[in-house]
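Z., the sequence and structure:
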Amino acid sequence: MTTANLTFELFTLPTQVDTNAFWTNLKENKYFILQQTKTQRNGIMKSVLGTLQNVLDTKQSPYRILFRRTNGSYLQIAVAETGKNIELAWNWTEG
């Protein structure tokens, strides 16, 4: 699989999302934010979050890129399971 094909597989249909305390900003510019899920060191919190994700069937990829809209809301535009893959998408956004 070529790098170009992999990059385009990482991009998703834009979905409105909220930024919250469960994500850490790794990089950002005027239009985009690259985020990684925060790892829970507390065993109880990790267990509760894992259970909640399983019940709601909402397992998130550990990395995502958000587009910052002019009205202050955010659209998720890319997700990845590895830092290497999300870097490919991030580099594409920077042109």
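The helical segments are 3-10, 43-56, 83-93. The chain has a mean pLDDT of 82.

Let me know what you think.
H.
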